[in-house]
C-alpha cells in the first residue's frame, strides 16, 4: 500500500467543534476548547500518523464577522489555511439548521481546487429522526455527501480519516511518528491558561483576554517554574479574573496547572499575574506581542 501524506485544513463557524475534533483525532489535548465561540485564534498544526500515512491537520479560528484588528487577524488565518493544503474538511454543527454562516463558507469553497469533505458534528446530541433530517438538509444545501461524526465521543471518526486518506496524494512522512504538534510548549501552556479563564468566567469577561508566558525554568528542587501574565482590557475584567480574595485566579491556576503537568510530565509552580492593556485588540503592536502574527 502506498504511503500517503498531506495537509488538511478544518474550517467552519465558531464553536462547531473543530478543536475538539483535532484533540480527539491525535489523542492528546493540544488545542484548547471552551463553550464560547472564537476560542481558537491561531492556525495550529496537529499531526496524525498511521500505517497508511500521515495527516497534518490545521485547526483554524472560526469564520465570523470582523469587529476589530484581532478579528481580522483570525479571519485571515482561517482563509490562509486553505492555501497549499491537499484537502479541506468543512465541519458543520448538527445541533443547528443550515444558516447564513454555513452558506457563506460553502460559497467561499466553490472556487478552490482541492477536495472538500463535509462532516456533520455533534450527532451525539441528536436522535435518529433529527439526524436523518439534518443530514438531508445539509446535503441538499451543500450538494455534497455529508459524513455524520461526533468529535466528543469519536463516533465515525474512522470513516472521516478513511475519507481523508482516500483523497490525499502519495507523499513523505513530514514529522516523526511521536510528534503530534509543531507548536512550542510556551504557546500551548499560554493557551491552556486562557482556556481556563474562558471556562470559569464564561460571559463575565469578553474576548479581550490574552496570556503571555514571561518565564519558564526548572528550579534546583526539580519543580518547573512558569510565570505568566493574563492581559485584559478593563480594570473591571481584572477584578473578575482575580475574584474575591484571589479565589478565581487560584482556581484558574489550579486547573491550568493540572493540564500543564500532564503536558510536561513534571510538577509545576504556576505564577499568574493579571494586567490591564486597554483596547489591545485594536493595537497591532500589542497583537503581535501576544503572539498573534503571521
Structural notes for this entry:
This protein folds into 2 domains: 4-167, P-loop containing nucleotide triphosphate hydrolases (Rossmann fold, 3-Layer(aba) Sandwich); 185-289, 2-Layer Sandwich (GMP Synthetase, Chain A, domain 3). 36% of the residues lie in helices and 22% in strands. It is built from 9 helices and 9 strands. The chain has a 6-stranded mixed β-sheet, sandwiched between helices. A hairpin with a 5-residue loop joins strand 7 and strand 8 (224-232). The two termini are 37 Å apart. Mean pLDDT is 82; it is low at 32-42.
Summarize the structure.
The chain has 294 residues and is of the alpha/beta class.
What's the CATH first level of the largest domain? Alpha Beta
- Structurally, the number of domains stands at 2
CATH topology of the largest domain: Rossmann fold
Uncertain stretches of 5 or more adjacent residues: 32-42
Shape: globular
Average pLDDT reading:
82
| Helix proportion | 25-40%
Topology of helices and strands:
Blueprint: E1 4-11, H1 18-26, E2 44-50, E3 53-59, H2 69-80, E4 87-93, H3 100-109, E5 116-121, H4 128-142, E6 146-148, H5 157-167, H6 185-201, E7 210-218, E8 224-232, H7 235-242, H8 247-264, E9 268-276, H9 284-289
Parallel strand pairs: 1-3, 1-4, 4-5, 5-6, 8-9
Antiparallel strand pairs: 2-3, 7-8
What attributes does this structure have?
294 residues; alpha/beta; Rossmann fold; GMP Synthetase, Chain A, domain 3; 2 domains; six-stranded mixed β-sheet; three-stranded mixed β-sheet; 9 strands; 22% strand
Amino acid at each position: 500500500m502506498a504511503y500517503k501524506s498531506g495537509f488538511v485544513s478544518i474550517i467552519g463557524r465558531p464553536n462547531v467543534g473543530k478543536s475538539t475534533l483535532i484533540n480527539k483525532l491525535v489523542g492528546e489535548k493540544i488545542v484548547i476548547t471552551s463553550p464560547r465561540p472564537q476560542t481558537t485564534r491561531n492556525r495550529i498544526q496537529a499531526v496524525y500518523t498511521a500505517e497508511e500515512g500521515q495527516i497534518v491537520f490545521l485547526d483554524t479560528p472560526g469564520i465570523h464577522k470582523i469587529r476589530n484588528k484581532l478579528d481580522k487577524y483570525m479571519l485571515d488565518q482561517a482563509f490562509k489555511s486553505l492555501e497549499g493544503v491537499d484537502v479541506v474538511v468543512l465541519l458543520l454543527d448538527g445541533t443547528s439548521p443550515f444558516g447564513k454562516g454555513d452558506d457563506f463558507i460553502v460559497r467561499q469553497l466553490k472556487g478552490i481546487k482541492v477536495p472538500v469533505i463535509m462532516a456533520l458534528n455533534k450527532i451525539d446530541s441528536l436522535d435518529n429522526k433529527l439526524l436523518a433530517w439534518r443530514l438531508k438538509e445539509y446535503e441538499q444545501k451543500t450538494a455534497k455527501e455529508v459524513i455524520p461524526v461526533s468529535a466528543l465521543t469519536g463516533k465515525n471518526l474512522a470513516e472521516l480519516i478513511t475519507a481523508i486518506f482516500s483523497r490525499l496524494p502519495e507523499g513523505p512522512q513530514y514529522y516523526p511518528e511521536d510528534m503530534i504538534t509543531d507548536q512550542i510548549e510556551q504557546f500551548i501552556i499560554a493557551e491552556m491558561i486562557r482556556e481556563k479563564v474562558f471556562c470559569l468566567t464564561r460571559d463575565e469577561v469578553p474576548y479581550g483576554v490574552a496570556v503571555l508566558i514571561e518565564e519558564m525554568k526548572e528550579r534546583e528542587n526539580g519543580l518547573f517554574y512558569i510565570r505568566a501574565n493574563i492581559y485584559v482590557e478593563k480594570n473591571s475584567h481584572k477584578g473578575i479574573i482575580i475574584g474575591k480574595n484571589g479565589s478565581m485566579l487560584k482556581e484558574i491556576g489550579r486547573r491550568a496547572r493540572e493540564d500543564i503537568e500532564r503536558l510536561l510530565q513534571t510538577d509545576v509552580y504556576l505564577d499568574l499575574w493579571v494586567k490591564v492593556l486597554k483596547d489591545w485588540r485594536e493595537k497591532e503592536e500589542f497583537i503581535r506581542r501576544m503572539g498573534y502574527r503571521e
